[in-house]
């Protein structure tokens, strides 16, 4: 293998003799990108017996993409029923990962969705939950403040409670998937920049600054860099700068996961905000979407003071005891026009698989998407319905109902 790496399972490799007489080992799968989706794909592939190479342009756990940080929301409610159905399996996959690793990764807090009386988001969420048989309750302002006195709300608000919502320890989920992949024999090569994917050879060739690597299948889970790597497909992916703020109460216990829920609010002017209980850096609060379009290579990583002030003003109204933000950080969204994922084969090379467009609501699906990518690579098919995630689907705009950041 060029670059000094050899596959670990001889029976899973193919040996090719090139005209020059050079012998090369062929991986069963190369995974490009070791974030949430890539790490999960590597784990499921390696667990299934594949000889796997993971190529990550930065170090594992880096903060330049969309998978870093302490927490991401996990939930059942969606305006599109197929997501709710997929979540039934995703929850089980996360619990299985906890069991295998022995680590606590998924924390249930319940959630409240706030909005003006009769707002479309709350109504849509309730219909979705009812259709899926997932219990939820309408609460009055009095019920909310009796259960969670941290909130200040008015009597003319819709308040929807759902008990199964919670959050994932995001950074630890990524590291755990990679650690388990390595335990199953995968090779994780960090600080290795992929410069080209040649899918026109007999076996796809992945070129890097350190040499070339070959595989039966290539799984592209490169987040904000996916469009650049697969430029020939002109994927409908938009990368935007997003920001999150963190808060610390003088009484920190009041905002811990056992005393404070995940929450979301649709404001009167259509802005969508969300929050996650104190875990690691504090209470996480942010606005979903509305970020400026950026390049992942040149994005300004300094949070905007105007944005922080805007979130501070919201917090002063809704949870005043949190005060002002202690700090903020930047991450990236990579989205499609209809906000649905891309999970498909390269239309001109079935040996190259693509998983992209997850930002804004995708992290909760990592455990499941990893399994799906492994099944597609190893078996050529999966039992999960991927029709909504085709590359060639007709572009559609969002339904108008925002989704929580995951």
Give an overview in words:
It is built from eight helices and 20 strands. It has helices spanning 36-47, 81-101, 120-132, 141-147, 170-183, 226-229, 305-318, 366-379; strands at 14-17, 23-32, 52-55, 71-74, 106-108, 111-116, 137-139, 157-162, 166-169, 187-189, 194-198, 205-208, 211-220, 238-247, 262-266, 272-276, 283-287, 327-335, 342-346, 349-356. A hairpin with a 6-residue loop joins strand 11 and strand 12. Helix 1 (36-47) packs parallel to helix 5 (170-183). The radius of gyration is 22 Å and the shape is globular. The protein starts with 13 loop residues before the first strand and ends in a 27-residue tail after the last helix.
Short recap of the structure:
With 406 residues, this protein is α+β, with helices and mostly antiparallel strands.
